[in-house]
User: Fold this.
Amino acid sequence: MNTLSYILDSALVLVVLLQLRDRQMSIRQLIRPIVILSVAVVNYLHGFPTQGNDLELIGVFAVIGAVIGSLSGITVLMHRGDNGSVLFRSGPASAFFWVLGMGSRFAFIYWSSHSGADSIARFTVHHSISGSEAWTVALLGMAVFEVISRTAIMALRWRQLETSPALALA
Assistant:
């Protein structure tokens, strides 16, 4: 685990922590986590392994990320403000799911580079995973699907609130 990993994971957690109070919804609010994620993808994605059970591993992690991101996006509290703008905040459930996803990746990376390295190696061999690149892509896939699903759900809910002034989504 390097300094960039700590910075990127912390930045993505900070995105949601900063949303614990009402904020006006904007494109910037939606794009910020995607920009942070893009830095991670550019720095860590060096190939896409397809040997053995690599695709299954990547797929499982992607689905987990999509589920966690969707749960986080669905539980964001959104409503129209007095001036008609859409306000949102990450309530306890939304923050929990977001931190669960980001934190579990962070914990896995830390564990695998310390005391869990032997367990990961055994699992990798036993399940025909090609190696560390497959794990890297799986973890990135999880993050990508978490961020994109949360962002897409928030964008759809924002649009719904803008077109239905009397509707409040919680």
About this structure: Strands lie at 23-24, 76-80, 86-90. The chain is about 70% helix and 5% strand. The mean pLDDT is 87. Residues 132-163 form the longest helix (32 residues).
